[in-house]
User: What shape does this take?
Amino acid sequence: MNRSLTFTKRNIRRTPMQAIAASMVMFLTFLALLIFILVAAGSQASLKYFESKPQVIAFFKEGTTDADVSAIENALSQESRVTKTKFVSKEEALKIYREKNKNDPALLELVTASILPASLEISTKDPKDLQPIAEILKKEPAVSEVIVPEDVVQTLTSVTSIIRIVGSMIVGFLMIFATLVVVMIIGFKIRLKRNEIEIMRLLGASPAFIRNPFLLEGIFYGVAGAFSAWAVTYLLLWYFTPFLQGYLGEVKLLPVNPLFMLAILICALLAACIIGGLGSFSAVRRYLKI
Amino acid sequence: MILFESVSKKFGSTIALDDVSLEIKQGEFVFIVGPSGAGKSTLLRILTREIVPSSGRVKVGEMDLTKIKDKNVPHLRRKIGVVFQDFKLLDDRTVFEQVALTLEVLGKTDEEIGKQVEHILKLVEIWGRRNLFPRQLSGGEAQRTAIARAVVGKPDILLADEPTGDLDLKTAWGVIQLLNEINSWGTTIVMATHNQEIVNTLKRRVIVLKRGKIASDSKVGKYTIH
Assistant: This one.
């Protein structure tokens, strides 16, 4: 194996342009793959966040008593579709309002607890249960308005599914393309080295001795591309974290967990070994007649 | 050591070897001579198992080349060194690296490779040229490199296919003296050649091939072109 590694290093060193080209193609493939994974994971986490958030908000009329609220809460607790209810008093509503607008004193000046309505936030097991629950609440005399942020979930669900489909197609295409590039480059090298291969055969080299450096070379291109793509992605994510945090608001996805990035690196390296290995194996089978 | 029993080889309708039987003992120096297309190279290529005979039996030591499995071919080839008329040196490797390749194939350590390559390059008198590439070598130096590469692994047999074909007479004699010395170590040498002067001066066994058949086989042969 040591000798195979030495031969692989020598092969790469002596044709640096091909090595750079192959690694660049792998880099672009894995950059697309990693960006897709992060966007998909981000949208999935956002979706989960919105799904877990109180999805129906019922605002109470002025003068609603605690007994009215308890009656509604008790009725909802009988509903198997409801997972959680949370009462937000006028004072709590003001606190939330102040917290959200703490950087804008103008918005805080004229707002008092009395003008904010008390509300009840209701979570359901399934987003499709939102509307029936909302209908029940609308019939309650103490309820003035019911808000169903169902549209957000629906939009996010469709965006996530589009990201998955389009992303999978692009990444699938790039993976096939990268594999073919490895086949082409390793095939070209095999033809370029046909004299050396013939001499090695005559010297008594085993098929594995001749084949392994080519296989390792393909894997090297994959690993080099995947690692550099991961490093660039992590760097970009780190750089844009403050901006994205502001954009995502209360959806706490960032800063990304280093363990998650480590897991992604391991998966990317495994995929790189498979793509590089598969490409070089195909080239060896196609072009290397030992 | 080497045994051919009624060996024939056909390429389509062309008969390259026709019912050839011969035996070469260990340590012999044998010239295979004959006009172009007589079957000399075919005979050598059968010995390296690059081609398989159409009929007959070939043995090298205990190995039957007509029955040998593909996975055992590398073991056969490690017993046989090969030298070509066009040297077949690798353009992107130095003299040292060309010779080291044989030992790398044999799985030697870097330390062993260093010692053995130095020894053989000094023996063939090109140690001073060890860092040069093939394009920087003369024909004689290139052939000495090829011979060093072929024998550094201490093969039992050395096959030389027209090794002096591209060399001037003086350089050719230098190569022949080197082959003679290698033969004196006990290595069997089978050399295909056209060079009448070398064959007749060396007074070794000569097998003459004509149209794929053995025309003559004499212990102290003479090679006359008819």
